[in-house]
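User: Hi! I'm working on a homework problem where we have to compare a predicted structure to a textbook description. Could you give me the structure for the chain below?
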Amino acid sequence: MMSAPEKRSLEEFTSALGDRLNGIVAKQTDVGDNVLHHYTTPPGFEAILRSERFWATHVRFLNDWSEQKYAMELINEAMKRWMEKVPLLSPHHVNGYLKQLLEFCRDLWKRHEAFVVCFCEKENLLNQWRVYAGTEGFSMGFNGKQLAEAGQKPNPWNGGRTFSLMKVVYHRDEQKRLVEAVIDAVADELGKVTPSMPIVLHAADAAATKLAMLSITFKDPAFEAEQEWRLWAEVPNSVLKPKNAKRGETHVRCRTTPKGLVPYVELDPTIDKKLPISEVWHGPSLRAESVEFATKRLLAQWDYEHVPIKGSKIPLVP
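Assistant: Happy to help. Predicted structure tokens:
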């Protein structure tokens, strides 16, 4: 049981550290006036319109798991460097706590399950059509600001934010700077207080969450042309299933794909019970007029007839 002064100290520390960590990623979360495009197949397009939900894929099951390994290696390298420098960078009374904190952060991927929906600033990219949508697929353009706003709604698993929207970082120097800025902020704020176990545990959880968020947005520079954004949701392992859940009832579900089973969570991206769709592109097709005709009918079926439709002119023959 914490005393009143201890509670006040924890609240002040939580607020100060939260402001520091949010400031580090502020540039990544500023979507501005961007329209963000989600490339998907015809079944995916129909399902999003019908359900008005996204199926966010577990990060382990993205098309290239090496992306996550790349981020993990970078963060582990940064943590190792900081572990070696702890005695030089922190007041003496913080050293032991900070070492515990960094060890706790190393374990972040075991404590957090992350799920992702991918978007692109470019509405008509050949490689996106090929990999994600096919020649008969769609590029759904969403209002970025409204999408970010929708993420503020409480989620069904623990009442926190439903999802966050962040821009992908491609340059390794910037990736390193962001990781080190998070660890630096924690060390600095711990150095300003008399550390207690509740404070250290909160610092560890806050840092782990922010590092998990950053890891999902790190990609190799070779993919920079995509100008990708990622909508991500974090589901703690402790709440994967609702309380008193019936058989088969769970926040994290699995769908079957040609590549096998894929875990996912269902996310609500609506504003005033409507998807914030700005435009729809259909992929390059030899049947462009027919595709546009059917697309209009599907949009009207689900009360999105106001959404403009555009067609890719890329000369791609299926």
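For your comparison, note the following. The longest strand covers residues 112-120. The beta strands are 35-40, 54-58, 112-120, 138-143, 164-167, 228-236, 253-257, 260-267, 277-282, 309-311. Good luck with the assignment!
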